[in-house]
Design a protein that fits this description.
single chain, alpha/beta, 6-stranded mixed β-sheet, 21 helices
């Protein structure tokens, strides 16, 4: 096989190709450095499961990868319609990658709606595999096709593979005692088998998964495995697929370690469990199900063996109320939600600020306002996290940058909450929550020590020599008040939302005391120790790209493209949004231009302009999808040249 030199990561979506011709008339095998595949069909066609299984096998093979599941916003849109299309995009490579890719090299379209909804994203020359059984006159008319695109020449610029997936699946399963409708449900496994053959993916994991998933229905498990194998064999024997492809493992992309594929929500759940173990505290989650945060509740409910207690409340307010009660009782307390739920929780977050208790508020952002776009991504809750409470109620804000980074962000949020006795808001989003990538499983000795000391006795001496407990007497370094567990003798104290007297915690309406307490709570947040922001600037650029959260992948990919084209551009990315890193102002002053790409209308840019008086330029997108690297690179090039 010819050797393959990888192109610089994320410079383009076109794979670099090497070729091996096998003897004896066997099919050709071409080696690629990267592939972007999109599975698309009705929400009932199993596209998310198909994509997830292909991703799992790709991860086990050792490729670097990034995924983008894209769900319909409606719970059950009419079958065969454009609003009902569900897709799963996977980008995998033999080198380091950062995004799910801009344009798919391969589209698997299970019906006309899936083809029409996605054809606009495909570059000319891409491969399209279509399920011809679904291209009926009625199905075509439902999505506005006057004639079949498989026959009218509109797809001549692509490599079209018409495959009767439904018919082939039913034929492969005729020996099973299944109705036609039941057999048709396995067509996604046929498609998975075909793609697994095309890209030399392992198969053992998928067969093991199917046996486990349908352990109580062995006939269904056997039928799905048969469909999967039939798809593999079809690829091997049909003349329509004369070439298969290899993408070598990304051996040089990862530090040495043990890896697994992980989604953002799963990484976040694991991070919360790890934080509770490192703090030696029970973990309590008070939550109300809401897309796209519900997976965290589902996952944590499985880990009672680690002392995790999950409470599915009747509403968002009850969920955070229970969590705050658990914090008062000495637990590492968490509540999870999305944007609309964060609004409902605002009063209790303010109460937690007043009580000065550790509480993690996890907001998996989605498109808004109101119900908005429940299954689409957005970064539009930053200002709500910063200011969405009555009165002066400052809280630290932390944002992960990749799915795997959600693990570390959860540990960091817990560290801040426990150290400074404050609620902390963690801002993830739907793109990170549902997307996945390889994650190196850390050694235990790499995790921070989060253990805390509870108050055990008096901490203040009155003028007459009496020793008493003052619940608001502060640590001089962190300004954190003592954490006193209910039931500890001698540590009884008042809690509630009315202003506290400094030190004693008694109710106080004194103007001077209120002024002091407001300023002290702000000073406590200002004292949170956060690392300096790091700047990637190898060429002494004049333009800085500043990002936060899930824009990290697209921004970094765009910056790589610009540098490969000879442009000098610097990059910095913020994890801590309140307080900002102490060196951020000095960093911003070094550059003539500062560009802030965000999936909102300029919320971080507003904060940066207000605090540092710099002319930060916004580049914004609010279409429910992450930035594309090519689009972002073009916008940054325009800013550089301006």
């Amino acid at each position: 096989m010819t050797s393959q030199v990888s192109s610089p990561a994320e410079q383009a979506d076109t794979p670099v190709v090497g070729e091996q011709r096998k003897p004896g008339g066997a099919k050709d095998v071409r080696r690629l450095d990267r592939v972007i595949i999109r599975f698309a069909g009705d929400s009932g066609d199993g596209m998310q499961l198909t994509g997830d299984r292909f991703t799992s096998e790709t991860a086990s093979f050792g490729n670097d990868l990034s995924t983008l599941p894209n769900f319909p916003a409606e719970i059950r849109a009419p079958a065969g319609t454009l609003p009902g299309v569900s897709s799963f995009q996977l980008h995998f490579a033999d080198h380091d990658i950062l995004t799910p890719g801009d344009a798919p090299n391969v589209l698997v379209a299970m019906n006309p709606a899936a083809l029409k909804a996605n054809i606009g994203d495909l570059p000319r020359g891409a491969e399209i595999i279509v399920n011809t059984d679904e291209f009926t006159k009625r199905a075509l008319q439902k999505v506005g096709y006057a004639a079949s695109p498989l026959e009218d020449g509109s797809l001549d610029g692509y490599h079209l593979h018409p495959v009767p997936l439904t018919t082939l699946t039913v034929e492969a399963l005729k020996e099973f005692d299944l109705s036609r409708k039941e057999a048709e449900r396995s067509k996604n496994m046929f498609a998975l088998g075909l793609l697994s053959w095309m890209y030399h993916r392992p198969t053992e994991g998928t067969e093991k998964f199917l046996n486990s998933k349908f352990a109580k229905k062995p006939d269904i498990a056997a039928a799905n495995i048969a469909a999967f194998r039939a798809g593999w064999n079809f690829g091997e024997t049909t003349e329509d697929f004369a070439v298969s492809y290899e993408v070598a493992p990304a051996a040089k992309a990862f530090p040495v370690g043990t890896y697994r594929n992980i989604s953002g929500n799963l990484a976040l759940a694991y991070g919360l469990v790890a934080a509770s173990q490192q703090a030696d505290l029970p973990l309590f989650l008070g939550s109300y199900p809401i897309t796209p945060a519900s997976d965290i509740l589902h996952e944590l409910s499985k880990h009672k063996n680690f002392g995790v207690r999950t409470f599915q409340a009747e509403d968002e307010i009850a969920g955070i109320g229970a969590a705050l009660g658990a914090a008062f009782g000495g637990s590492l307390a968490v509540t999870t939600t999305s944007g609309p739920g964060l609004a409902l929780k605002s009063e209790t977050i303010g109460l937690a600020v007043s009580l000065e208790l550790p509480l993690l508020v996890v907001d998996i952002q989605r498109g808004g306002p109101s119900t908005g776009l429940p299954t689409k991504t957005e970064q539009a809750d930053l200002l709500q996290a910063m200011f969405g409470r009555n009165g002066e109620a400052p809280v630290p804000v932390v944002a992960p940058k990749t799915p795997a980074d959600c693990f570390d962000a959860a540990l960091e949020a817990a560290r801040i909450a426990l150290t400074h006795r404050t609620p902390v808001i963690l801002l993830s989003d739907g793109y990170l929550a549902n997307g996945s990538e390889p994650w190196r499983i850390p050694d235990l000795d790499e995790l921070p020590d989060l253990r805390v000391r509870f108050a055990t006795g008096p901490n203040h001496t009155l003028d007459d020599g009496t020793e008493v407990f003052w619940p608001y007497k502060r640590d001089p370094q962190t300004l954190a008040r003592p954490w006193a567990i209910p039931g500890t003798p001698g540590l009884e104290h008042r809690i509630g939302g009315i202003e506290k007297q400094d030190g004693t915690g008694n109710i106080s309406y004194a103007p001077a005391n209120h002024d002091f307490m407001v300023r002290t709570r702000q000073a406590k947040i200002d004292r949170v120790e956060v690392p300096d922001v790091e700047v990637d600037d190898p060429d002494g650029a004049r333009t800085l790209v500043l990002g936060w959260g899930s824009t990290y992948g697209p921004i970094t990919a765009a910056v790589r493209r610009l540098r490969a084209a000879g442009e000098a551009v610097a990059q910095a990315h913020l994890r801590h949004l309140n307080p900002f890193p102490r060196n951020l102002g000095a960093v911003l002053e070094r550059y003539d231009k500062v560009v802030v790409p965000e999936m909102n209308l300029g919320q971080l840019a507003t904060l940066v302009r207000a605090k540092y008086l710099v002319d930060a330029r916004s580049y914004n997108q609010v279409n429910g999808m992450p930035f594309k690297a090519e689009q972002l690179a073009a916008a940054l090039k325009e800013a550089i040249d301006d």
